[in-house]
Design a protein that fits this description.
The structure is a single chain. The protein has 442 residues and is mainly beta. It folds into two domains: 42-180, Trefoil (Acidic Fibroblast Growth Factor, subunit A) (Trefoil), CATH 2.80.10.50; 186-438, Jelly Rolls. 7% of the residues lie in helices and 39% in strands. It contains two helices and 29 strands. The protein has helices at 2-24, 383-388; strands spanning 51-55, 61-65, 73-78, 88-94, 97-102, 122-123, 135-139, 146-150, 176-180, 186-192, 205-206, 217-219, 226-229, 232-243, 254-259, 261-263, 268-270, 273-280, 287-295, 305-310, 320-329, 332-335, 341-343, 355-361, 365-370, 373-379, 393-401, 418-430, 436-438. Strands 10, 12, 13, 14, 15, 18, 24, 25, 26 and 28 form a ten-stranded mixed sheet that branches. Strands 11, 16, 19, 20, 21, 22, 23 and 27 form an eight-stranded antiparallel sheet that branches. A four-stranded antiparallel sheet has the order 4-5-7-8, with no helix packed on it.
Length: 442
């Protein structure tokens, strides 16, 4: 009996070993089979993934090839190959329409009025106001393939030899397969989910008193102005006389409002990444909530301010946000001059529900999102910007109250208190990791 048990054990061991070896070559283990990364529906597209475009007829992939010494790149068609020249990001711009960008947003596929030549189209720097850069990705009758048609010119993405004018080509639309491409994954490197009983002092410090811009609030570290409630950080702005040890330029030492401003300076800082906040904003005349960053190595504005989110509240503007940049160029204060805003539809307000506000920042560009919708981008392309936006930054959240002379209206007419409710703040970085640090508490 003992000998039979030994033989049975040996047979079982042999079976296990053979099973393991058969799994190594993919024949005996279904989990080792390659996954099908082909997209079957536009709803599957995520901004967190990279994609390749393969033409059904020719089997060639869309590729972005830089032209040396020129800001404009060239889209060509090449056999499938590894490398980010064939890796693209696809952003939902509005219902049914997308923006196609080379990986990390270095250039866009615009479908411009230029001639399509030699299996390619020209692509240009980001100008999101142009409808030529919006593409409809619609399912074809053939399973697993799509037609990719430009919104502004009705140009269909094609892989044809020789020149072709960008006159309406919908009837000539070719079929494309969209597949996940090799891409560095976003990894969560830091977050505050605000789940503890009080604000985490390892992450945040407070501003106090009067700070800037002739604003009407005094910042406090009083728990009535900043606290944790139901897993959220609440910044509460209260209409009440508030003494300040700092006077504003008009000499006021008693302010009309109290509020809070928290920052990670001296606690946490990062160079590049995706910075994301889920929040419900306050509302009202001259109410000014913000989610922003500043560099840690220089004084303002040389340190490169990044306003991921600003809302200048009031009737007609409680549903409008913007992003902004401030830096120094040749010793002169400089700011982003183009319009960079997004407005909610149907007169909705950012106070009605939670939304996600995000920045993606790399050594080449800053890209701004609301609910994963890319609405603004800026290249880092001057010496002043290189100094300001290639240094570690810390985060900032606050609600200010603007003075009436700015033209935003009289803040006293609002209902108070007003609450800025933040569900979470998260920082992601792509692998391989860029420089990042978590500073020890001092």
């Amino acid at each position: 009996m003992k000998k039979a048990k030994i033989i049975l054990s040996l047979l079982l061991l042999t079976f296990i070993v053979l099973s393991l070896f058969s799994g190594c070559d993919g024949k005996g283990d279904s989990s080792s089979k390659p996954q099908d990364d082909t997209i079957s529906d536009p709803s599957e597209i995520s901004i967190h993934e990279y994609y390749s475009f393969t033409n059904k007829e020719t089997g060639l992939n869309l590729e972005a090839v830089p032209i040396e010494g020129n800001a404009i790149n060239f889209m060509s068609m090449k056999p499938a190959a590894e490398g980010d020249n064939q890796a693209f990001q696809i952003y939902k711009y509005r219902e049914g329409y997308f923006i196609v960008s080379k990986a990390n947003g270095k250039a866009l596929l615009p479908g411009s009025n230029s001639t399509v030549t030699g299996r390619g189209v020209q692509i240009a720097n980001i100008d999101l106001s142009s409808s030529f850069q919006q593409w409809k990705i619609e399912k074809a009758e053939e399973e697993g393939y799509f037609k990719i048609i430009n919104c502004g010119s009705s140009l269909a993405l094609t892989d044809d030899e020789g020149p072709r004018q960008t006159t309406p080509l919908v009837w000539d639309a070719q079929l494309w397969k969209i597949s996940k491409a090799q891409s560095p994954k976003w990894e969560l490197v830091w977050s505050d989910e605000f789940e503890g009983p009080e604000i985490n002092k390892d992450n945040w410090i407070y501003e106090e008193g009067y700070q800037r811009n002739n604003e009407l609030q005094s910042y406090t570290k009083d728990p009535k102005n900043a606290f944790i409630r139901d897993g959220c950080l609440v910044i509460k702005t209260i209409k009440e006389p508030t003494p300040s040890r700092y006077a504003n330029p008009e000499g006021k030492k008693v302010f009309e409002y109290s509020s809070a401003s928290l920052l990670t300076l001296g606690k946490q800082e990062w160079l590049y990444g995706r910075f994301e906040m889920k929040a419900r904003l306050p509302k009202g005349q001259a109410i000014w909530p913000a989610f922003w960053m500043c560099g840690t190595q220089d004084e303002w504005p040389e340190n490169g301010e990044i306003d991921i989110l600003e809302m200048w509240g009031g009737e007609g503007t409680d549903g409008r946000i913007s992003c902004n940049l401030h830096w120094s160029e040749n010793g002169q204060y400089t700011k982003w001059s183009e319009v960079r805003e997004i407005i909610l539809p149907n007169n909705e307000k950012f106070n009605d529900s939670f939304h996600i506000f995000a920045l993606e920042w790399d050594e080449n560009q800053l890209r701004f999102y609301m609910d994963d919708l890319l609405y603004a981008a800026k290249y880092i392309n001057t010496p002043g910007m290189e100094k300001g936006y290639r240094q570690p930054h810390h985060l900032w959240v606050n609600t200010a109250v603007a003075p009436d002379e700015w033209g935003w209206g009289d803040a006293s007419i609002n209902n108070y208190p007003q609450e800025y409710i933040i569900d979470y703040i998260r920082v992601y970085q792509q692998q391989p990791k860029t420089e990042t640090s978590s500073i020890e508490s001092k």
